[in-house]
């Protein structure tokens, strides 16, 4: 039940509506959400490669699948936090920029760069499902890392429940076991897929920056960590 709630909140998969409390209580399973996303995107690339070697077509269709599955939910977080980074502001002024519903030039540039980088990585990885799946599982795990490493937001926002969950010792242990099990299974198929773990660094770095710049981590920062972590893992996988 909890996994379905996580899928409902973190993706646009047709699993019904999700309960926020149930999703937070199952936050430790978030890398499984990434696993599901990665499998779907990889299947699109595999289907194209089964017909003919058409890397650009495969990459384009995989990017469409990515947007369809995620609904662009995490791109919104990346856009909002990119405006904060671009503004160079800190404290209350930075929070005002974060909460401004309008998107600035830095937000637009960040989203375009992220999509182009992901498309380019898919071009080289459309026949490498293990690397793609590992990157997606790790990118969702990066949100758990950001929630754990960040200062909890000073208001009762959507992210608060997940941040409290990430601080729970039992959830932390279960999350570590879940992530390690997923990555170990994928690495058996292709050891190079472990490079996807680089996505976790994005969670740490964005949380550290948000702690300093905003004073806390919220849902936008967690979303940004998913997008940045995913792009980093995919690009590194394509370069390896």
TrEMBL record:
Q: Could you tell me where this protein is found in the cell?
A: Cell membrane
Which NCBIfam families does the annotation name? cobS
The protein depicted here goes by the name Adenosylcobinamide-GDP ribazoletransferase
Record GO biological process: cobalamin biosynthetic process
State whether keyword Phosphoprotein applies.
no
Any GO CC annotation of this UniProt entry: plasma membrane
Where, by residue number, does the polypeptide cross the bilayer?
Answer: 28-51, 106-125, 172-201, 221-239
Role: Joins adenosylcobinamide-GDP and alpha-ribazole to generate adenosylcobalamin (Ado-cobalamin). Also synthesizes adenosylcobalamin 5'-phosphate from adenosylcobinamide-GDP and alpha-ribazole 5'-phosphate.
- Record's catalysed reaction(s): alpha-ribazole 5'-phosphate + adenosylcob(III)inamide-GDP = adenosylcob(III)alamin 5'-phosphate + GMP + H(+); alpha-ribazole + adenosylcob(III)inamide-GDP = adenosylcob(III)alamin + GMP + H(+)
Cofactors, names only: Mg(2+)
Annotated PANTHER family: ADENOSYLCOBINAMIDE-GDP RIBAZOLETRANSFERASE (PTHR34148)
Lineage of the organism: Archaea, Thermoproteota, Thermoprotei, Acidilobales, Acidilobaceae
The superkingdom of the source organism is Archaea
Instruction: Enumerate the UniProt keywords alphabetically.
Output: Cell membrane, Cobalamin biosynthesis, Magnesium, Membrane, Transferase, Transmembrane, Transmembrane helix
Entry annotated with the keyword Translocase: no
